[in-house]
Structure formats: structure tokens, C-alpha cells
Fold BURP domain protein RD22 isoform X1.
Amino acid sequence: MGFHLFPIITFLMASLVATNNAELSPQIYWKSLLPETPMPKAITSLLHPTGLLNEKFTSVDYEGDGTDVNVGGGNGGVSVGAGKRGKPVHVGVGYSPFDYVYAATETQLHHDPNVALFFLEETLRHGSQINLHFTKPSNLPSFIPRRLADSIPFASTKAKEIFKKLSIKPDSDDAKSMLNTIVSCEKPAISGEEKQCVNSLESMVDFCTSKIGKNVAAVSTEVSKESVLQKYTVTKGVKKLGEKEGVVCHLQNYPYAVFYCHKTETIETYYVPLEGADGSRVKAIAVCHTNTLGWNPKHLAFQVLKVEPGTLPICHFLPEDHVVWVPK
């Protein structure tokens, strides 16, 4: 579900210049802490050329001073095999297969049994074939500077204030989607994980480096072009990245970029080159969860793969707008 776009109200550049003088831009902040870590495409695609804004905006009252600052609206293709964000199997309102406490509904389970959102680790062998549908993100939200992001409430108890600041109608689908994101962020982490929803690139860098250090790689799936549901073959070059621990950050439904990040010591991360039946190529990132005892027993993965929690590693490819951080 995409966020409705609103007219641009006067944008006062002087205010943003003052903000920039007071703090580093997101790109410079990244380079200052991670000089040896290239930004993955999932990050750069959310950065406006000026480091501030996207091309599509909604208005925010910055710190209550009457200054209108514009932040990106919209959302991208969410998942391998599930089409755009908000369509069944992947996301219904209030459900994401990347939130492991939720149970899948019958609609999500039976929408398209050929779509392999989740798979077993043995599928990552060279020559294996899997039916996939890669989507290209569209109407992506933008990162906004941390100072601005921190001035906007992000709590279910402040929902009315949030909707007012972002010019969202409280009874709209956008409001419901935003509230679902906030509520999901407020839920406690499952056993063995640490989580945080980050509302700026600077906050993502701080959270991830505080958990696994600064000698890290940040990687994301890269899709050359959007495809139809088709058979993909695992080609030569599958590579394991890191060892056991990592931080996975999933882009959420929100008017500006918010990521649900969770650190775990029970994942295996792989770079997986794929070739589609139509000749298209994908540089895919796959994550395999080696301990699923804390997941909902009725999670989509268990129902599709016919396995029990805690038995076999559960793997999935990451959408193009999600990021995995792993130690080098």
C-alpha cells in the first residue's frame, strides 16, 4: 500500500541549512564511522541527492516552529515472490512474514502456492531452481536527518500527534498502516534477538555498529529489472557472508524511511547469484535462520515448508529495499 502524496507547502531552505551546519549529513556520518564500508543500493536509493529529501513529499512542522519541511512518501516493492507491498502472501495490514511472531492467515497461505518466499538451506546449491517473483521498489520513502526524525513522535500513544504533523487523516488506510508499523516496533524482541526501529540513517548506523562493531559489510539484493513469476537458477558464485551473527534491517510502511532492525546470532547470510528463465540476473542476498524456536508455530514459513519450529534452518531472499549487516 502506497502513501497518498500531499501538495508541497513552502519549503524553507534556510532552516535546513541551519540544520546541516549543526550536524553531519547522513552520508558524511556514514563515511566518518564506516570509511571502509560501501553503502548498499538499498541505502543509496533512499538518499536524496542533497542528502535530505526525496522527489515526492508530505509536509512536516519541524519542531513546532512553523517551518515546513518535506519528507518522502510512498513505499517500494517489498518481497521476493510477493509483488508490491500490501498484497497477499507478503503483507496484509498488520502482517509481515519478516515479523516472526505473527501467524499466517489462510488467504496468505493459499494466495499463490508457487511463490517460494521461504525455502530450505539446501536450495542454495549451484544448479538449484526456484520459482520467484522479484519486484522493483517504487515510490520509496526518503531518509530524513536524525534531528528532524527525532523531533517527530514515534509511539502508539502519540498517534494523533503524529498524524497531525504528517498531514495524515486519522481514519485513512495510511494511518492504519503507520500505526501497525509503530505497534510492531513496540513489541518485545523474540528470544535471542535485540531489535530497534530506526528512523534515520544515522540511527541505523549507530544501532548496527553498537551490536556487531565497525568492521562490517552492509549488503542488499540488487535486481536488474522487475520480472514476472518465473524459474530462477542458482549460478556459480554462492558465497557465505560473515559467521552466525548479523543485523537485518527491513524497510517499513511509513511516510519517511523507518527500518525494523534486529540483531541475531543465529543467522547465516549468503550472496546468491541467480539467473531467470528470461535471462535476467539478480545479485540476491539470502538469510537462513538457524534457530526458529521463538517463531510463531503457525508462521507462514512452517506452513509452506511443512517443518516444525527449531528443526531445520529457514531461509528467505531479502527484498531489494532491505539491508543485512555482517561482520567482515
Observations:
- The chain is about 20% helix and 25% strand.
- The two ends are 36 Å apart (CA to CA).
- The mean pLDDT is 78.
- The CA atoms of residues 251 and 259 lie 4 Å apart.
